[in-house]
Amino acid sequence: MTAVAQTPDPPLSTFFAPLDVPLVSVDVYVADRQGRPVPGLGIDDFHLFEDGRPVEISHFYAAPGVAETTVTPEAEEPAAGPAEEPAATPKQDIFLVVFFDDTNLSRSRRRSAVDHLERFFQTPMPTGFKVMIIAYDGRIQVLQPFTSDVAEAAKSLEDANHRASLSLSVEQEGLINEMQRTRAMADASPAQAESILQNSGSALYQQIQSYADQSEHRIRTSCANLQKVFRSLSGLEGRKALLLVSDGVEPRPGERLFRQWAETFGSESMWAIQAAQAFNESLKYDVTDAFVDVSQSANGYRVTLYTLSSLSGINNRAISAEYRLMDEGRLSVIQAMSEDVLKTNLAATTGGRPLENSPALGDQLTEVAAELGNYYSLAYRPDHVGDGKYYRIKVDVDVDHAQVRYREGYYDTPQRDQIDSRTLAAAIHGLAENPMGIEVHTFAATPRNDGTYLVPVLVIVPIGELVLVPTADQHQGLISIHLAVCDDDGALSDLQRLEYPVPVANDQLTTALGKTAGFTVRLGMRSGKQRIAVGVLDEVGRAESVVTLEVDPEGAGG
Fold first, then answer.
1. How many domains does the chain have?
2. Percent of the chain residues topping a pLDDT of 70
3. Residue 269 has what DSSP assignment?
4. Which of 75-79, 88-92, 363-367, 432-436 has the largest mean confidence?
5. What pLDDT, in 10s, does the model give residues 31-62?
6. Interior CA angle at 475 toward 472 and 479, to 5°?
7. Is 139 within the bounds of a domain?
């Protein structure tokens, strides 16, 4: 830590201020039997529950498309003591992220989705509509930052369409075909059947294990990166939705292959025991928990999730809050057997729905845009704050035969996780707020043998903005620094978090409160223009700031 002289500010109090409990907001879409939004509802038409307990709706808002007035209960019946400020009218901006998961997406399905999206972008958009295009090939790449220029977004769709892609279903079909070919060869050559089955059966089983292991890792990594995108959206005010373009996944990747192997080779005595154990082998690769985490993460950051689906026998408008993740946030075994049901639950529990990748997709997208602009917003103050637990939400509406969609839970996110999210949002979207007045500077980068650069980043924090706790011989503070980098191609780094103590001797306290503390962090970066986002959290006083800095490591400094 180094001290940097600065114009003294009046010393700040080291006493803690009362911790304000933030509002929990729930956006609710209410439709009739035909899927049309139900207008004219008021606060008394809604009943809100957290973990099964009724909670008081402290704020209520109806979007212009479904109501004529906005009501805030406190404004009608002021409570004793200082009146609470009415909630600001929610921003009407609508943010849609189109996320192409190229790690599991066939070219034909992507082409179909792109064609429908391009036609959708040619239709009139709701007021405040903005779209972002992301491609994921193992790393997040922003092909188009949020824009209201849908013609520009359509160009990015073409960029997405020409990227490499991989489909897990194609890999599966290749292994199934190989098993069937091996069985046919053995049946055609009875004298050599045992040798063929023994050699090929063992090799194919190992290939299936390898496929299942790699697929599980790929799926879990994709889920983790989806959650990173959700977190980056947390700083945006308005309605947020993500359309996941993917081939879908098995809840247990490889299960179909293990079953096929057992059917193909299980009749042979040499494989009887292994065939009987094949199903249990598939249980090792269950990824249901990863999709539960995706659903809960989307809910925690108020992102409505829509998925492309091959469903044809379900009326998508009817997929409502009755499709729920089961017991303790886990899908039942029966539900998990179907990837379509998995995707239905994934969308429905966040207030969204699956969409069919069919000629009607453009019309469905138009409906989605209308849904996002015709909603009711309920808010309440929980009796807990930042405990890191997941709480379930239930909304009842006094409307017969209504279809109701809403996020079905949220994480009571600790502040440290919130600053992580704001740092990611700053890296991707350039959003930053700096109430603490921190400064960030870079210095000359050092080239490394692998072609990257080591860039020193100096973070300067005003000591007077920190809460310092007195001890016997010093006052002690603690900050955490959070960093993320987004390059000019939209690729996002992993987030880094570092903690630093801020000790100040008691006899230097008055002087130190008018100075700053500097902390140097070294980042490994590629060449090219990049945005560094730096978040600083006072771990004691809970104040926070986020700033961004544009830098090219080849010319870093100053």
1. 3
2. 84
3. G
4. 432-436
5. 998 888 999 999 999 999 999 999 999 999 88
6. 140
7. yes
Instruction: Please report, for the domain that includes residue 521, its CATH number.
Output: 2.60.40.3880
C-alpha to C-alpha distances, 264 to 179, 207, 260, 503, 515, nearest whole angstrom: 7, 15, 6, 69, 75
**Among residues 464, 450, 444, which one has the least CA distance to residue 554?**
444
- Helix/strand/coil (H/E/C) assignment for every residue in 347-363: HHCCCCCEEECCCCHHH
Rounded Cα–Cα distance for residues 263 and 255 (Å): 12
Whole-model pTM?
A: 0.73
CA distance 194 to 254: 25
CA dihedral (229, 230, 235, 239) in degrees, to 10, reads: 120
Residues whose CB is less than 8 angstroms from the CB of residue 153 and which lie 6 or more positions away in sequence, other chains included: 121, 131, 133, 144, 147
Same domain, yes or no: 340 and 392: no
Q: What is the pLDDT of residue 4?
A: 35
Containing structural domain, residue 106:
94-319+331-353
**What are the tokens at 222?**
């994709």
Residue 370 lies in a domain: no
Query: Dihedral of the CA atoms 117, 118, 123, 129 (nearest 10)?
Result: 60
What token pair was written down for 339?
Answer: 């990837």
Residue 376: closest CA among 50, 100, 18, 68: 68
**340, 477: one domain:** no
